[in-house]
Amino acid sequence: MTEDILNRLKEAVINYDVDETVKTAQEVIETGFDPLKAIEEGLAAGLQIIGDQFGRGEIFLPMLMISAEATKKALAILEPAVANGKSRKVLGKVVIGTVEGDIHDIGKSIVAAMLTANGFEVHDVGCDVPTSKFIEKVKEVNPDIIGMSALLTTTMPKMTEVINALKKEGLREKVKVMVGGAPVSAAWAEQIGADTYGEDAMAAVDVVKKLLSK
Ligand code: B1M
Question: With helix as H, strand as E and coil as C, how does the chain read?
Fold first, then answer.
């Protein structure tokens, strides 16, 4: 059963089958299957294969977009179930978004859902977020952590821009900075003066807890 539902989710994403992806996500909820496992080992695993095929030039952008759309629709069904599963005690506040010029929001949304599920109050500012919007949100909600995601090597420098803007506004000492996304690394985090790097959604929760000593 476990392998079957995960395989069917993965296959549906790989086969650009939006209806089947949505139907299987609903089945995950109806059968009480672990939604996080379904996201990581079903949806994300399928998308990883599609991304590799795209990278090798074996498929074209419209196909990648259909798989991404299928994943987003399934995520909308699964994410609320991830968030409902754990305690609601607030451990800290997080502002999270994908940097300007970058519309990849699936990984960032999974990180946001995992943080919420683990007791953090999360303010998700979306994707393609200008530096000024990050700063506005930090001023508005006074978070413990600001999290930035980037999936493109060309948008990673925007993280530095946000950190510099935090410094300019006198906010850098008040908020910890976490960065993540496929091309981002611990070395990059150190290079740009971020406080921490989250390799995946689980790791992001762990490093945030460690950073805030919760
Ligand atoms: Co794009 N894309 N894409 N894409 N896309 C990549 C990133 C790419 C590696 C594909 C490839 O060539 N193999 C490549 C980037 C190359 C590079 O920069 N080196 C690429 C490209 C080139 C592009 C376009 C430029 C294509 C074009 O137009 N010619 C274009 C750019 C658009 C833009 O942003 N301006 C583009 C567009 C798209 C779609 C719109 C079709 C779609 C995005 C849909 C959406 O998000 N709404 C898309 C997708 C889906 C991908 C791939 C296939 C999958 C990304 C994803 O969602 N992964 C991707 C290939 C790949 O990564 N293998 C690719 C699943 C997700 C769960 O993983 O996002 O890594 P990930 O998140 C993980 C961790 O990284 C971490 O936790 C998450 C959960 O475990 N994490 C954090 C992420 N953020 C974090 C933040 C944290 C902590 C951890 O703290 C704050």
Answer: CHHHHHHHHHHHHHCCCHHHHHHHHHHHHHHCCCHHHHHHHHHHHHHHHHHHHHHCCCCCHHHHHHHHHHHHHHHHHHHHHHHHCCCCCCCEEEEEEEECCCCCCHHHHHHHHHHHHCCEEEEECCCCECHHHHHHHHHHHCCCEEEEECCCCCCCHHHHHHHHHHHHCCCHHHCEEEEECCCCCHHHHHHHCCCEEECCHHHHHHHHHHHCCC
